[in-house]
Amino acid sequence: MRSLLLAVAAVATFGISPALAANATVQKAIDGFVRPAYAAFHTAAAKETGDVQALCAEPSQERLAAAQKNFVALVSTWSQVEIVRFGPVTEENRLDRILFWPDRKSIGLKQVQAALAGKDATASDPALLSGKSVAMQGLGALEFVLFGTGYEMLAEEGDPYRCAYGLAIARNLDGMAKAIADGWQASDGIAKIWANPGPDNPLYRSDDEALTELFDVFVHGLEMLRDVRLNGFLGNTPDDDKPKQAIFWRSGATVISLGGNLDGMKKLFDASELASLLPSESAWVADSINFEFNTSDRMIGHATTAIAEVLAGEQRGGLPAFRLITSHLSELFGVNLAAALGLSAGFSSLDGD
Question: Does the global pTM surpass 0.90?
Answer without folding.
Answer: yes
